[in-house]
Amino acid sequence: MTSFYPESSRRLQDRFDTRRLADRLEQVTVRHELLPGDRELIERMDMFFLASVDRRGYVNCSYKGGEPGFVRVLDPKTLAFPSYNGNGMYLSIGNMLETGQVGMLFIDFERQTRLRVNGAARIERDDPLLAAYPDAELIVRVAVRDVFPNCPRYIHKLKLVERSQFVPRAGCPAPVPGWKKFPWARDVLPAGDPAHDPTRPVRDR
User: Fold this and answer.
1) Which of its termini does the chain have fewer beta carbons within 10 Å around, N or C?
2) Is 180 helix (H, G, I), strand (E, B) or coil?
3) What are the pLDDT digits (tens) for 98-124?
4) Which domains are delineated in the chain?
5) What is the reported pTM?
6) In angstroms, rounded to a whole number, what is the distance separating the alpha carbons of residues 39 and 118?
């Protein structure tokens, strides 16, 4: 066996007599590069959940959304996705700059399937992929370490009603979120924030 499981997981596996099962699952499901089926799943997704950690060991989990295909599989060992204008906190990106460690969870709620990808992220401000993503501030590239599917039995079956109108699209300026026009936010927005553009529409959600 590899070092896939930390000692804390091993203690729980022994407590609940699942070490043999855990070892078998590692053997048959855990990979260290992306297969064609993984790529098909990832590149049809319009969202994923992103976990990151800072040097203090504090974990942050965030939702990332975009148009289908906004996460790209560049090769079997590399993923890339854009960082769009947000709330200015840069929690996930800051964590990546500190430790680089990320976990990505892709869930297809309609087909009730999911995939985990863990790896090391790096930030490329002048990445050539920026030109492919309207309004992207940064590009994140992830060097894949572990890839594995999860049992789908607890995934609720959901259907998409509509995609967010705030997702950047080529030739169509994204609207400004209404909260950026509130008095408490207006005077502290960065100089280049889209909210300063009077031609941009404003939407609450």
Assistant:
1) C
2) helix
3) 999 999 999 999 999 999 999 999 997
4) 1-30 (no CATH), 32-149 (2.30.110.10), 175-205 (no CATH)
5) 0.91
6) 15
